[in-house]
């Protein structure tokens, strides 16, 4: 698939990646940023939860509050990364709208910034999403600074509240920069420029949370992109209801392995558990398909996540392999 065709598969400019904790959403977000950087493009990978998950994935020092290159692609593409810190974002905001550069830094020393984001938690999300909007819409010399921005967002249990910034800030301000900024963010999030991709495993709780999140975001008018099934395992056995001891005994003997009664019984129990698991996974696939969104399956990474594994996932997201 050529780079233009590949990017048509991911038409949004802001890609919000969410998923239940433990589904690998940070890994998927990083792989997507790599995939979208192909063809000599520049992407920005953003995190907002303070976990420094991006730095751990790419084996770099903790990310500061600035955009830094963390990866390149063989064809000249570039991935930059940014860890958005709410305190630094508020200082930037105060300086931008109120010219409080030095005074803002003094407020930090007094603890006023921490106080402000604690008593008004909605303000924190406005600052975080506001920075993401700025990067997504930024132009340099008349050209977009980034072809795409990928946001490693909060998990599915919090994603609706995090993205629904206008409701939260309505309690904070009726007029002024906070109101206008939150309205600008809300307009971007509800436009075709934004797509929320939901990462899940073929397990009951992640699938249920994915369905709930898609329903919530749809009700909020926020566009859903793809459902990404992470850690998909290839079938080891033909899809049948049962594996007989005779079949296993013949197979073990043909492979030159012990075929005593104990070995056959243990293998039969494992085979039956695998088939039962496959039946559950197929029913969960059906549930996900009924959500009506495009689905992509990413393979289980047997050796963990490293640079080569990220490239493998990026290949799959780009429609290769």
TrEMBL record:
Where the record annotates domain ArsA/GET3 Anion-transporting ATPase-like, the positions are 15-172
Q: Which superkingdom, per the lineage?
A: Bacteria
Q: Note the Pfam families from the entry.
A: ArsA_ATPase
Q: Which GO terms describe its molecular function?
A: ATP binding; ATP hydrolysis activity
Q: What is this protein called?
A: ATPase
Which species is this record about? Spirilliplanes yamanashiensis
């Amino acid at each position: 698939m050529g780079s233009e065709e590949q990017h048509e598969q991911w038409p949004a400019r802001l890609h919000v990646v969410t998923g239940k904790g433990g589904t690998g959403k940070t890994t998927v977000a990083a792989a997507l940023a790599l995939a979208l950087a192909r063809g000599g493009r520049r992407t920005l990978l953003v995190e907002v939860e303070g976990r420094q998950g991006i730095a751990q994935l790419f084996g770099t020092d903790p990310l500061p509050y600035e955009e830094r290159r963390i990866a390149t692609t063989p064809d000249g593409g570039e991935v930059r990364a940014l860890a958005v810190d709410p305190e630094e974002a508020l200082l930037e905001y105060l300086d931008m709208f109120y010219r409080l550069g030095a005074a803002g830094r003094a407020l930090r020393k007094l603890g006023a910034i921490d106080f402000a984001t604690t008593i008004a938690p909605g303000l924190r999300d406005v600052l975080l999403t506001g920075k993401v909007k700025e990067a997504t819409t930024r132009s340099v010399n008349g050209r977009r600074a980034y072809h795409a921005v990928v946001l490693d967002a909060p998990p599915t249990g919090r994603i609706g509240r995090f993205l629904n910034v206008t409701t939260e800030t309505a309690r904070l301000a009726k007029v002024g920069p906070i109101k206008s900024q939150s309205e600008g963010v809300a307009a971007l999030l509800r436009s075709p420029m934004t797509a929320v991709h939901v990462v899940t495993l073929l397990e009951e709780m992640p699938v249920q949370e994915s369905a709930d999140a898609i329903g919530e975001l749809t009700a909020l008018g926020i566009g859903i992109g793809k459902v990404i099934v992470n850690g998909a395992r290839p079938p080891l056995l033909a899809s049948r209801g049962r594996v007989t001891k005779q079949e296993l005994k013949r197979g073990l003997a043909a492979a030159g392995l012990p075929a005593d009664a104990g070995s056959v019984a243990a293998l039969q129990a494992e085979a039956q558990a695998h088939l039962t698991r496959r039946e559950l996974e197929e029913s969960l696939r059906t549930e996900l398909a009924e959500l009506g969104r495009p689905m992509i399956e990413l393979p289980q990474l047997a050796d963990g996540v490293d640079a080569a594994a990220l490239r493998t996932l990026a290949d799959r997201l780009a429609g290769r392999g």
